[in-house]
Amino acid sequence: MHTKRSDTSAGGTVEVTLVGGPLETPERAHVPLTTMRERKVKVPRNGGYEHYELVDTKDGTSENVFEWTMRTRIAE
Fold first, then answer.
1. At a CB cut-off of 8 Å and minimum separation 6, what does 2 contact?
2. Phi-psi region of 62 (alpha: psi -120 to 50; beta: other; left: phi over 0)
3. Sign of CA pseudo-dihedral 43, 44, 47, 49
4. What residues are paired with 50 via a beta bridge?
5. Of 2, 16, 49, 73, which sees the most CB atoms within 10 A?
6. Measured distance CA(19)–CA(26) in Å, rounded
7. Are 67 and 20 in contact (CB under 8 A)?
8. Would you give per-residue pLDDT tens digits along the chain (76 residues)?
9. Would you state the pLDDT for residue 11?
10. Main-chain phi, psi angles of 36, to 5 degrees
11. What is the DSSP string of 27-65?
C-alpha cells in the first residue's frame, strides 16, 4: 500500500506509510517535510523509538514508504 504526498501547508507535513515493526505501530503517519530529505522517521512508542528508513523504488525514486529498521530505548 502506497500513499501520495500530501500538500498540507499547515505544519508542512507529508503523509507516509510505515511498513514492518511492532503490530501496535500506526500504518500511516504525518511527518515534517524535512523527513523526506533525512530519509528517516523515529516514532515514539512504549519508552523507546521505532526507527524507519525511506524505501526507494527500482527507478531510484520514493513513494513515501518507510520500512522498519530497529527499536531503541530511551535512557532513564
1. 17, 63, 64, 65
2. beta
3. positive
4. 43, 71
5. 16
6. 9
7. yes
8. 343 444 444 468 999 999 998 888 889 989 998 888 899 999 888 899 999 999 987 776 668 899 999 999 988 7
9. 61
10. -65, -35
11. SEEEEETHHHHHTEEEEEETTEEEEEEEEE-TTS-EEEE
